[in-house]
Amino acid sequence: MPVYIGTPISGTIFIGKVKLLKQNKLPDFPKFIDKKQVDDELNKLKTAVGRIEQSIQTALPDVGLTQLDKDILNTHLMILTDIEITQILETTISEQLMSAPQAVMTTFTKIIHNFEQMENQYFAQRADDYKDVAQRLVTTLVGTQDMNQLSFSEDEIIFLKDVTPSLVTKLHKSGAKAYCAQHGSYTSHSSILSRAFGMTALVAKDDVCNKVHENDTAILDAENSYIVINPDLEQEKSYKNRLQQRQKQQQELQIGLELPAFTKNGVLISIKANIEYPSELTQVLDNHCDGIGLFRTELLYLNRTDVPDENEQYAAYSELLQKLNGLPVIIRTFDLGGDKLTFLQKYDKEDNPYLGNRGIRFSLQEKALFKIQLRAILRASAHGKAAIMFPMIICADDFVAARKIVQECMEELDKESSPYCKDIQIGAMIETPSAALCAEQLAKVCDFFSLGTNDLVQYTLAVDRNNDLVAPYYLQHHPAVIKLISNTIKAAHKAGIPVSVCGEMAAEPAYVPLLIGLGITDFSINPHKVPELKAIVRNCDDELYHKIQNFDFNTDIATLENLIFNTLKPYYSIVS
Ligand code: PEP
Ligand code: MG
What we know:
The chain has 22 helices and 16 strands. Among the domains are: 110 residues, Glucose Oxidase, domain 1 (3-Layer(bba) Sandwich), CATH 3.50.30.10; 108 residues, Orthogonal Bundle (Enzyme I, Chain A, domain 2), CATH 1.10.274; 134 residues, Alpha-Beta Barrel (TIM Barrel), CATH 3.20.20.60. It is α/β, with parallel strands linked by helices. Magnesium ion binds next to α16.
């Protein structure tokens, strides 16, 4: 029973069967064929087209599909059965003697190239539909896994090389509950999404994917960072016991979940939710969150090939606000870039996307697109307590530039007599060292701050948050990070504006007492973690505040580690 080491990403313990996911890499196939193989190759093409057509026809009546999903599938059907394309493919096979997959690649590459050259953005974006169809055709012809056609049973653990936010979403939608990836890191968006979907996930340190076999029994132990393959009976029994204990502990944490969270010395701590998709609302309500502290709207763009228009966004935001029934919903404007790349990024590939055209920079450059979102949020603000938050702010100037565009949208809506909340709160993510250092100036132009520690750590320590090779350097408790957090909190308190933490640090039990001691009274976390957080809050007391307020953060990493992982442990040990 081999045991491998992993990095925990999400969940606790999962016992299941190995399911290998072969990604992207196509096996070698012959480019050219003999004349006598032509009929065979034409038949292969016909069968592949037929199979995809049938699977699309089967998927179309699914009630879970949005109108947009259906439009995309119908476009794919149209491309697949296009007579002109079929004829070109057939002649390429019969006259140029290309194999079916090669004929698809050659023909579609030309079509895609022509679309991409078009000035009109609408047509240029159609290239993506052709890319999708070409990929499905080629993967069907050469027999690799078609990522659009995944389906898993509840007890399968998906072993795969890389995960992206869109793949995690596909895995979740296809029924997967657990996965083990070869590459990944705790604060990547794929990992954040995995936690939001309640999946169990680990990143394997060894080349595990090449060592396991389909249908092996596997245990993902995300608590102790182990991946156990084909456990003996004793091991399996002990893991099953632990799983039961965890379930019991979760039930105990439900006690008092509906009540507000006060520290022992009477400080009310507000706990809001981070969400990526409006469909996560059930978890928000079930866990009695005090609102939504971070709605990562850019995820609305994933897995689609067009821009959600103003009305579609308005409908999504309004529905959320109405369902939250007066609780605050902080809508972060699109934070595209980094690992959240979409077709919208039409520029050449950037060498350093995380230092490039992302977040508010992208929005300020693409003003028309930005205004669509701002108008949609403002209109939706008539239906509940909405707030706007800008990502990747580096100083007061870019915040003011963005705020001016909100003002412009308000004036337009006034002219149209369209209702909106005139004193909507507008805040900044504090996720760059410069924003944290300029917090005093920023506080004069912002209505609130939200500390995005995922990026703050990345930019302060110059450590890529997605790169597992440098994961040991990604220290959320590095003194430089804590000093920036503390500076931000002090500036917010001085200016009298709210400050929250919405990065993953806020959901990690070990950091919660430290953040509370530093003066944080507002957390925004994955809704699944609210029961744990409430239990820790209720354990914090006057002495904790005293310890932190008197602590000298001009210190080294080891001293801080001692404070967090030893001195403060009694405050969070109830959940660990
Ligand atoms: C952060 O950077 O901490 C944050 C909350 O934003 P994101 O994880 O979406 O970059
Ligand atoms: Mg961020």
